[in-house]
Amino acid sequence: MNKDVLYVGMDLGSFKTAVVASNGRRENLLTAVGWPKDHVARAMLGRDVVFGEDLIRQRLAIDVVRPFAKGALKYLSHDKAGFPDASLARHKEAARLLVREAVSRLEPPEGVPVYGVIGAPSRATIENKQAIMDAVQGAFSAVVIVAEPFNVAFGMNCLSDALVVDIGAGTIDICPIYGAYPKEEDQVTISCGGDAIDEDFHRRVKQLYPEAQLSLNMARGIKEKYGFVHDLDESAIINLPVAGRPREFDVTEPLKQACVSIVGQIVAGLCEVVGRFDPEFQRRLLGNIILGGGGSQIKGLDRLIEAALQPYGSGNVTRVYDSVFAGATGALKLAMSMPVANWEKLESLDARTKETAHKAA
Hints:
By secondary structure, the chain is of the alpha/beta class. The protein has two domains: about 5-155 and about 325-360, Nucleotidyltransferase, domain 5; about 195-260, ATPase, nucleotide binding domain (Nucleotidyltransferase, domain 5). It is built from 14 helices and 14 strands. The two termini are about 35 Å apart.
């Protein structure tokens, strides 16, 4: 490790972005960018671009863009993610501004190179990885893109005989760890995650209680506080407005059903990954399944996955120690373990690429 370099690990999530740096700083902010809706909003906010919790507090006065929502740019093309061509440039600009803001919060010293490892979905395409590279231009001196579950495993010193399931807002990534960097074809990315749970829960509540007023932001908050999948005595009794007046509602069952909805796809993905390995390795992989990402905190999810794996000979499932920073911490550890000469070579290649593009323009 070079002390004259700032090393950064970044978990560029669909809903939240976590960054940690070799100077000891760490930050966690919403993966979203807001612009004031008009000159009145601009005067009230006192700035042209909004980040962080102000995106929630001031959302009526701003236009908010989540550049990686539903796996957009990171895993799916923008059209498959459901936003039109006209908004593509806006999403890419939001991604660039977000990365720059996240790195600036780490307070990098003036003139010091910033080398970073950034997580990407396991089966991200070349185009998706290029979109991430475009977003980080200007914020980093050199960057390496690594599968998000591998970052989690590397940070935990778990480099063999494991399966990492990274449950994010936009995707669920399943990655086998077997002592070498996993090949792309060994991994699985599922195009759903926490956002899908929020939308399913929101839909179920509106069907059950059509009079209740519930936004997606509220649904997400309820899931994060009460979300569960087990059969123990659990309840989620909340207050929701009805025509402006609060009323108590029991949302236990729709919340559980929404959270359970991802389990079948996770188990199918695990079995698909394990089935590609020789039989003597399959038991070892299933015996060490690690859940990461925000979705890993749903109560009882580890036990339900274990129960669902019983027909396959059972499995042992644990959760990461820190669902917020586990991926970013592993990415930082990986960045700091790479030889300085490799980083300098990457930086030199990037500089030549920019110079060639400039001359061509």
